[in-house]
Design brief:
Elements: E1 8-11, E2 14-20, H1 34-43, E3 46-53, E4 59-60, H2 82-85, H3 100-107, E5 115-120, H4 124-139, E6 146-150, H5 153-162, E7 167-170, H6 173-183, H7 185-196, E8 204-208, H8 209-217, H9 222-228, E9 232-236, H10 249-260, E10 265-268, H11 271-284
Parallel strand pairs: 2-3, 2-10, 3-5, 5-6, 6-7, 7-8, 8-9, 9-10
Antiparallel strand pairs: 1-2, 3-4
Helix pairs in contact: 4-5, 6-7
């Protein structure tokens, strides 16, 4: 096993988890690799997958709404049942498409610290009550190891009603950037507070790391604001330009500034490389 597992960093007593973006630990890992997920479950990693609803109400681990780009198939994912998807392969890696039923089985063997983010790429109008029922049927007994996120708050609320103990996350980044462009930081603060106090009752807020640092430079601590409300923050998606070389000086300034804000999690495609680079810098003083 790599000496650097890519699970977390510690700074001034605060632990920041490293989340494996789309199941990538290293830049060369194939998208949504079951082998990487199995290793993450063994180690207790935080990982993220994208989910697309199927015609039969279940889900497939895919980012796109059509099969053509990521897989050997073609057509809209939401028109395909499990039996249609089983024979297909991912274009990168050549592995089978992981279905929600597979996830339910794998989660029963997961390390208790493992956390899997379901990033829902379809809205409630597409998923419907049938899809929410599927989640309830397959994941109600492993809910402590899942956090469900999505852009459609109606879907998150529907899942909350059916699975109230499931962790929930929301990503207001695009909305906050737009608000900042025409109304300024005070309006951003008000909107974020409204989201934190809103009916989704999020466990985690997902914020682009660049937005976090830009707001901090202008006097608004977005992460501190979330922490004051008892909500965790995932700062996404930080990658190194040259993972084997570690931090370039500008990257180090960015990343150390981000860590100083005490994020609870950082999303990355190169978690072990970031862990290695961080420890080298910290040990060098």
């Amino acid at each position: 096993m790599n000496a650097f597992s890519g699970l977390s960093l510690t700074h001034l007593g605060h632990i920041t988890r490293l989340k494996w973006h789309r199941l990538r630990r290293h830049r060369g890992d194939p998208l949504f690799s079951p082998a990487v997920m199995t290793e993450g479950f063994r180690l207790g990693a935080s990982m993220e997958i994208d989910l697309r609803v199927r015609a039969d109400g279940g889900f497939a681990v895919l980012h796109d709404d059509v099969l053509d780009g990521e897989t050997t198939g073609s057509g809209a994912v939401h028109r395909m049942a499990a039996a249609d998807l089983r024979p297909l392969r991912m274009k990168t890696g050549g592995h089978a498409i992981t279905l929600s039923e597979d996830l339910a089985t794998m989660l029963t063997e997961a390390h208790p610290d493992a956390l899997l983010q379901f990033d829902m790429k379809d809205g409630f109008a597409t998923v419907g009550e049938r899809g929410v029922e599927h989640l309830s049927l397959h994941f109600r007994d492993v809910g402590r190891q899942i956090i469900v996120s999505g852009a459609d708050l109606d879907l998150i609320l529907a899942i909350k009603r059916r699975l109230p103990d499931l962790k929930r996350g929301i990503d207001p980044t695009d909305k906050l950037i737009e608000i900042h462009s025409y109304a300024g930081l005070a309006a951003v603060e008000r909107e974020l507070i409204a989201d934190l106090d809103g009916p989704t009752e999020p466990d985690t807020i997902y914020l682009a790391w660049g937005l976090v640092l830009q707001a901090a430079r202008n006097g608004l601590d977005l992460i501190g604001l979330c922490h004051d409300k008892g909500t965790r923050v995932d700062a996404w998606t930080y990658n190194l330009d040259k993972p084997d070389a570690g931090f370039a000086e500008e990257e180090w300034q960015e990343f150390s500034s981000l860590m100083a804000r005490r994020p609870d999690q950082i999303t990355t495609d190169v978690a072990p490389a970031i862990e290695r680079a961080w420890l080298r810098r910290v040990e060098a003083g």
